Every structure is written in structure tokens, then in C-alpha cells.
User: What shape does this take?
Amino acid sequence: YIIRDALTRVEEKLDPAWFVRISQSEIINLQYLKQWDFVEGGVIQIKMENEIITYTSRRYAKQIREMLLKGRGKR
Assistant: This one.
């Protein structure tokens, strides 16, 4: 979805148990996460159930990696 509000304000309204910011311009819903994998440069490739493929930014990669390794996402 395209939202015409600051992503920071949108992120504050979402449930942090399910919604994770992966880059400066993207937030994903972990309920629709199909698969993730580490790729070069410390970036994580994310595949969603609707076959959309996206990548984390390096800025958010460490935080997301720790969360995914704790079992909040399918690998």
C-alpha cells in the first residue's frame, strides 16, 4: 500500500509484534513473511507470500537479523 504519511508516524500506530521496519521506506507484516535469507553485504532478502521480494537496508539489518534468528519469521 502507498501511504501519504510519515513512515515514523505509521510505525508508531502498528503492532510491533507483527510489523517491522526493514528500510527507510518499507515496513513489512511478519504474518505474510514467506522466507528470508542472508545475502552479501549483511543484507537480508525477504520474500513475502504474494511473491514480492525485497531487501533490508544495512541500517536495519542487525536488528532484523536478531529478531528473525529468535524465531519470529520463517526461514
About this structure: The longest helix spans residues 58-72. DSSP finds two helices and five strands in the chain. Helices lie at 7-13, 58-72. The CA atoms of residues 21 and 27 lie 4 Å apart.
